[in-house]
Specification:
Blueprint (H helix, E strand, L loop, with lengths): L4 H22 L16 E7 L12 H10 L4 E7 L4 H5 L2 E3 L2 E10 L4 E5 L14 H10 L3 E4 L18 E6 H7 L1 H6 L3 H4 L1 H8 L4 H11 L5 E5 L6 H5 L2 E7 L7 H13 L3 E5 L9 E5 L2 E5 L6 E7 L2 E6 L3 E5 L4 E9 L12 E3 L2 E3 L2
Length: 360
Amino acid sequence: MKITPARILLACLAAWALWSAGQAIAFKRYVSADPAASASPPFEIEGAYHMHSRFSDGRKDPDAIAAAAARAGLDFIVLTDHGNPNNDCLDAQGMRSGVRVLAGSEMSTNRGHLVAFGFKRPGRTTVFSREAEAAAAEVGALGGITVIAHPFSKTRWSWGDAAVTDGIEILDGDSLLKSDVARTILNAPLFFLRPTTALLRLAAPPRDALRKWDELGRRRQTLGFFSSDAHAFYRAIFSLFHLHVLLDRPLPADFESARAEILSALAGGRFFSAVDGAAAARGFRFFLDGKTLRLAAPFRFAHETVILRDGREVFRTSANEAELPLDRPGTYRAEVFLRERTPLRTEVPWIIANPIAFGR
């Protein structure tokens, strides 16, 4: 058989298709935690943060987005359409398809994009400042939470001297598709076969964001978020990143009461972020008991937990339970990595827990 460029191309395409099919077939999502783990305090719920609807540059309306969230098994979402603020987005809050839809806005400021949510509704003619520090102060005065959006991709954040925001995004779903074009093209067939697998393969280690998070945490308590930043493909992205919120009591049926409970937990850092598309993270706990950090990772698959103080590793374990007596002040946080066969790269944290300040 004569070898021609056309036959070489067809062979390459066939190999590509077979490789993609093999990746889709081989994918396994790990699930092992006891589903009854949230039957007693703290009560654990799951949600997704940062997404866009037709009120800005998203593809679906809030009803369709909430329906996708319901199919992904989420209890709540935080809708964040562009605006300073976006009043139509704020109007969309409520129960939709059994999902609690909270709302805020992604604001354009002089330093980059700043997500604000949970604030008391200002007048419809109110416009937040375009100056980042002032906008954060205005949202804070209204009881809201501000988070630096995708600080090292897309619209990058320009850092100032003042640490005035409440949180920072560590991983961002929308940026996965744009940060490595060659890798995106390589995995393109997987989006039709198993989109969650494709998204997992695109996640890169967030070294810059983690380093900045630790730097900010030395100056003030700073929350870390895995961000959906969904504009389309909502169900696939909702299956990827979850916020696991820990509550003192089950969510009330009344929407406003439930909203208040969720926002209070988020503002207090009583949540952790996880790549649930790779493995279910329900049941993880990381907390301070007197002068001892306690860790619970009740998973039947291989994983490894690293505890850091002010950004430096101080403890590492593969156990399901561990404790670390503290004798030095600092800001402590935990990262958990999967050690099973998974499309998620080994350097990408599967779980990140919010920092705990000790002795400060």
